[in-house]
Amino acid sequence: MTQLRVLITGGGRGIGRAIALRFAREGAKVAVAARTSAEVDAVVREIDAAGGHGSAQQMDVTEHGSVEAAVYRAVEFAGGALDVVVNNAGIFEIRPFDKMDIALWLRHVHVNLDGPFFVALEALDALYESPKPHIFNIASIAARQGFPGNTAYCATKAGLRGFSDALRIDLAAKKVRVSTVYPGATDTTIFDNVPGPWDRSKMNKPEDVAEVVWKAYNTPAGTNVDDLDVPPRA
Predict the structure, then answer these.
(1) For the segment 4-39, what is each residue's pLDDT rounded down to a tens digit?
(2) pLDDT digits (tens, 9 = 90+) for 154-212
(3) In 3-state terms, what secondary structure has residue 95?
(4) Structural domains in the chain?
(5) Which of 80, 98, 110, 228 is the 20 to 30 Å CA partner of 220?
(6) Catalytic residue among 128, 153, 182, 217
């Protein structure tokens, strides 16, 4: 099998890390991007140990210049093409609407919407060089339904779904697949500081999401992988 070339944002932990390691086990070249260098450096070591070839890219998805530079370096590392781009970086903070402030709203917009737009835009030419290009946008069940204290999160994840739907149409002629992934609550560090009676033992694990992404990438052409649900844990 040809060595896959992958770029993952928010790749330093949680779902992004799990996806990186899933592709690494298949021998892929995986560029992991995040704001925290120490985290992506650690994941690169895990990628290499798992049988892949990793590259750490410091990236702030809210800043176009940062995205442009990191994607350029990732494409160089990958040899000029990308087969898979995973827009996983995201922010989630519960705040009742009557306590919402403009700064938190805009932070959600910048990370959850601007980031995927910047990354897809900068990665497009490299995706066109792949025989089987695929963009995965990691949304949430909050893209489909409302939850208390989640006006900013639900709005931006629903916006990401709309972005995916329209992007899929625009890129169809170039045979770029675009999938939206809808995890439920997933046991990652994002819940460390979230108030509420969360039973994390019943949540999905990051590896569950990674397996959905891996299987979708490997489905034959013509298979509908537009919207991907993550099966609940038994």
Answers:
(1) 999 999 999 999 999 999 999 999 999 999 999 999
(2) 999 999 999 999 999 999 999 999 999 999 876 676 666 666 666 666 777 999 999 99
(3) coil
(4) 5-229 (3.40.50.720)
(5) 80
(6) 153
Q: Is residue 182 among the annotated active site residues?
A: no
Q: Using alpha carbons, select from 169, 183, 57 the residue that is nearest to residue 123.
A: 57
Q: 174: which 2 tokens?
A: 């170039």
Give start and end residues of each alpha helix (H) in the chain. Answer: 14-24, 37-50, 64-78, 102-109, 115-128, 151-171, 206-217
CA dist., res. 132 & res. 74, Å (int): 18
Q: What is the Cα–Cα distance from 35 to 96, expressed in whole angstroms?
A: 27
What pTM, to 2 d.p., does this model score?
Answer: 0.93
* Residue 73 and residue 65 in contact, taking contact as beta carbons nearer than 8 Å: no
